[in-house]
Amino acid sequence: MRVCPSDATREVNFDGLVGPTHNYSGLAHGNIASASHRGLVSNPREAALQGLAKMKALHDAGFAQGVLPPQPRPAIEMLDRLGFTGTPSEKLTAAWAADPAIVRAISSAAAMWTANAATITPSFDASDRRVHFTAANLQSSFHRAIEAPTTAAALAAIFADESRFAHHPALPATPAFSDEGAANHTRLCATYDGPGVHLFVYGRDGLDRGHAEPAASKRFTARQTLEASQAVARQHGLTGEQCVFARQSAAAIDAGVFHNDVIAVGNGPVLLYHETAFADEDTVLAELREKMGAFGAALIPVRVNRDAVSLADAVATYLFNSQLLTRPDGSMILIVPAECERNPEVAAELDRIVADPANPIAEYRAYDVKQSMDNGGGPACLRLRVVLTAAERAAMNPGVLFDDALHAKLVDWVKRHYRDRLAIADLADPSLLNETRTALDELTGLLRLGSIYAFQQR
Known about the structure:
The protein is about 35% helix and about 15% strand. By secondary structure, the protein is an alpha/beta fold.
């Protein structure tokens, strides 16, 4: 079964391939799952194979699937900037001796959560009719702020045709323009090949305008700023009529909703969200209805009430960090973490949603991505959504498009190169650095990406 004909416009989900240094360092402030598993021993091989199994299942169901490569970790070039000298192994050893926290940060495999990689605007919404990309600066945390250059290089290698694809620089890496990518962006539309309204969700103002902000989060710092969302919209040439800027509720942020995709997910005209997602729910829905209506689309809100699923359970199970996908008949399927089935309240709410004829969500399926979940990211974190026409797909690098042959190659590659056990202390092992570089050097050949990594260019 195919979701749509091969010559049609399709949404391609590009999943991040989990990297060989997948570990539980607990680096993500505000991410409760990450913090609660800090210090545990991880299994990088299992993590990568779980991700590949999800990709394979969705590919087999007829959904368009792509792969984004891991980033080189440990990020030795960062140690150069921090004053460490010598060979790569010597710098790694010296950094661990000086401050293990530095090595933990430069060894993070968090780039696997490609929902944070960039924000994408399809060509149907851009005035120049090109697909627009802005790599996220991720400046709110050191371990993620180092990702942007490699993210941009990978996206440029995949989407290289300048007549069809436009790449913008990451926003200034300052608190005022803190940008966390597509995890805080949702495009709502009647059909993929028609105009859409872009919902940008932010947690705080970045610049002081001389007036009091609404109630701010107290436990955790909001990551996305209004100014960042507005700047990305300007880069992509989006007009005010195409955008809605919505503020997250402070209560959600303090409960562990570090990105909007932990509390809401949209696809086509459907917005599935928890009632605590937005600071002003009524205004957000009214503006979406008005602006979608101008394009001939009708918003279908699917609200989950807090008396059905508590905010704590929504975060613990990552109910909303799920993939909402359109099937050939126009109905939708929700791809949820296996944790959702194990929570009675969440499972009951999922049953209610799929039984409700007022929305097109007709089925849900649970997948085991426990290694990613324990580190703070569910199915939706693992993928970057890119709407592409047939001509745009033909113009991109075909080596990253998922099929049975690539799946077999990647499974073999993972089994040959990945460890099945990684403790935090293992990050100081110079042999892990060499293993990772050997693996990624081979991977760029498998994906036909060329030398996108700094270590390959020396």
